[in-house]
C-alpha cells in the first residue's frame, strides 16, 4: 500500500526527475519512442507493448525493426503472416512463440473491434485478451489511446519502495491507485512521469543504486542509509519480486 502524502510529493519527485533527465533518451516529451513506420502509428505502441513483455526495450526494438523490414506494419499484415514467419521475425524479443500468438490475438481483436479501437477501447476489454496483463494494457491505453492510466512496472516498484513510499508487497492495483489518487488526472504527466521513472531506474536507481549521485538521496529512505557512499549492496529488505508474478515487467539493468 502507498503512504498518504503531501499532495505535492509525487509532483516534486517528478520535477526532480525532470530536472535530472531533461530529455530521457528515446522518450521525447514522455512519448513512446516510435519509428513512425506502422499504420496507424499507434499500432506500433500496441505491438511494442507486447514485444517488451519481460525483456528490455532494446530487444523489443530489434524485433520491431525486423517487422518493419518484413512489412509487418499493419494489423491485417500481421494477421495474415504465417505464424512461423512471425515467430522468426520477432525472435530477438524472446518468448517469441508466445508473443507471436499474442500479437495475432491483439491484431485480430483490433480488426474486429466494433468501433474505433484507439478511441473507444476500455481497460476491461483489453484485460480479457489472452496474454494482456495490467502493465501491457495500461501501456496501450496511456501511450496509444491517450487514456489516463498510470503504468506500473518493476522500476516503479523498486524506486518507490526504496524511497519508502510503497510497500514492496503492494499489488499492481494498489501501486496504480497510489499514483492515480495523488496525481492530477493528466495524460501528458502520466506519460512523462513513467518515462522518467524508467530513465531513473536505468541510470541511477539501478539494481545496485548509485545513491551518492541521486537527486533524492536526502529524502529517500534507502538513500539516507547509504549516507553519501556508493551503495555496494542492494537494500536487503527490497528484492525485486519474482518476474513471473509481475505482468510485463521489464528486464532489470
Ligand atoms: S537515493 Fe538511492 S535508492 Fe533512493 S531513489 Fe536515489 S538511487 Fe534510488
List the domain count as a whole number.
Answer: 2
Small molecules bound in the structure, each named once: iron/sulfur cluster
Helix content: 40-55%
Helical segment tally? 13
Structural class: mainly alpha
Largest sheet report:
none
The top level CATH class name of the largest domain:
Mainly Alpha
- The CATH architecture of the largest domain comes to Orthogonal Bundle
- CATH topology of the largest domain, by name, is Endonuclease Iii, domain 2
CA distance, first residue to last residue: 25 Å
CATH superfamily of the largest domain: Helix-hairpin-Helix base-excision DNA repair enzymes (C-terminal)
Approximate shape? globular
Radius of gyration: 18 Å
Sketch the topology as an H/E string, one letter per element. Answer: HHHHHHHHHHHHH
Q: Please identify the oligomeric state.
A: single chain
Low-confidence stretches: 233-253
How would you explain this protein's 3D organization?
The protein is an all-alpha fold and 253 residues long. It folds into two domains: 9-26 and 150-245, Endonuclease Iii, domain 2 (Orthogonal Bundle); 31-144, Hypothetical protein, domain 2 (Endonuclease III, domain 1), CATH 1.10.340. Helices cover 51% and strands 0% of the residues. It has 13 helices and no strands. The longest helix has 17 residues, at 96-112. The protein is globular. The model is unreliable at 233-253 (pLDDT under 50). The structure holds iron/sulfur cluster. Iron/sulfur cluster (SF4) binds at residues 159, 162-163, 204-205, 209-211, 214, 216-217, 220, 222-223. Iron/sulfur cluster (SF4) binds next to α10 and α13.
Amino acid at each position: 500500500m502507498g503512504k498518504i502524502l503531501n499532495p505535492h510529493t509525487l509532483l516534486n519527485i517528478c520535477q526532480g526527475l525532470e530536472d535530472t533527465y531533461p530529455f530521457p533518451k528515446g522518450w521525447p516529451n514522455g512519448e513512446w519512442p516510435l519509428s513512425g513506420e506502422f499504420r496507424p502509428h499507434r499500432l506500433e505502441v500496441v505491438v511494442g507493448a507486447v514485444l517488451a513483455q519481460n525483456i528490455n526495450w532494446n530487444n523489443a526494438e530489434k524485433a520491431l525493426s525486423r517487422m518493419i523490414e518484413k512489412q509487418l506494419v499493419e494489423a491485417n499484415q500481421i494477421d495474415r503472416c504465417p505464424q512461423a514467419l512471425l515467430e522468426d521475425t520477432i525472435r530477438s524479443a524472446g518468448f517469441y512463440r508466445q508473443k507471436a500468438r499474442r500479437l495475432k490475438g491483439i491484431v485480430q481483436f483490433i480488426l474486429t473491434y466494433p468501433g474505433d479501437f484507439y478511441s473507444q477501447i476500455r481497460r476491461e476489454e483489453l484485460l480479457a485478451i489472452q496474454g494482456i496483463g495490467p502493465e501491457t494494457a495500461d501501456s496501450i491505453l496511456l501511450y496509444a489511446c491517450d487514456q489516463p492510466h498510470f503504468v506500473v512496472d518493476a522500476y516503479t516498484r523498486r524506486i518507490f519502495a526504496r524511497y519508502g513510499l510503497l510497500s514492496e508487497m503492494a499489488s499492481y492495483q494498489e501501486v496504480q491507485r497510489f499514483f492515480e489518487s495523488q496525481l492530477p488526472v493528466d495524460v501528458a504527466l502520466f506519460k512523462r512521469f513513467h518515462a522518467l521513472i524508467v530513465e531513473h531506474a536505468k541510470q541511477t536507481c539501478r539494481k545496485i543504486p548509485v545513491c551518492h549521485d541521486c537527486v533524492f538521496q536526502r529524502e529517500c529512505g534507502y538513500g539516507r542509509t547509504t549516507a553519501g557512499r556508493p551503495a555496494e549492496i542492494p537494500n536487503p529488505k527490497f528484492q525485486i519480486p519474482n518476474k513471473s508474478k509481475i505482468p510485463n515487467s521489464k528486464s532489470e539493468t
